[in-house]
Amino acid sequence: MNALVKKRKIVFTFYSKRQLSKTTVVNYTTAVRQYLDYIEKNHLDMSFQSIIDWLETFENALTYNFKLQGVKAYFLKYFEHETADKILELERGFKTIKRKKAKCSVDDSRYITFNEYKKLVSVDTLAKLKSYCHHKNELSGYTDDNIKRTILFIQALFWTGCRISELLNIKIKDCCINDIITIKIKNGKGGKERLTYLQRNIFNQIQKTFKGNVFLFETRKSTQYNRLNVTRDIRRFAKKIIRRDISAHTLRHSKAMYLKEVRHFSPDQVAKALGHSSVITTLQHYFHGTPTAEMQGIS
Length: 299
Known about the structure:
By secondary structure, the chain is mainly α. It has 14 helices and three strands. The chain has a three-stranded antiparallel β-sheet. Strand 2 and strand 3 form a beta hairpin.
């Protein structure tokens, strides 16, 4: 078991019944490195108990479950040539580590209103941003150019309802250009394709600003953007403007709530717009709570 610690600089491989995306491999690799660092720092052996102790350092249920899956996929691959009894013992051991139940319903702490969205995208210059900052150092690193880039990410994430990995994987060839831009999205969960839409003027601004040759969003070095960097920039910007701690995924939730509350979409329409595999997911996330007497027409 200790030999694993010495091997942590290698490129990790994982056992999976389906092909893993590049993003998943990167995130699984991060999880394994974090676990190995944890047991080395705390002088622990590799064991199911040390995995449980490490996982308890993550409060978010989705993060907890994803880290667990990454470490499990690594161990199953690493020990794949052991005896059948050993592999069965390994699988049984992981079954004893219970997944955390994620909070399904999306309350108002997990999305921004349409008015908050409009306020965010209205602060499109350094001059406008200055009025939201109390100290000069809060403007450090900001220019009109990178403010514009951040706003375009916010607009694209909100109107397409994409997951950040889906958005960054959009290629120019996936976009059908008419009065409204129709974009073919390969679902980040399950690989199914769906269509989403974007205003022509926002699309034109993205092309003019990012100058992508292959991908819709490209860095100045003609590479894909890192999703963690994009989320960091959105979070930093939103804290100044609307005083909210949001992520790129918050904008996906926000689009869903906009469709429900402003556009009055039905659950199945929201499900199709967001690419949910089942309308049950949509109902659990966005259509919850007990209707009041007034809502039921009783007064």
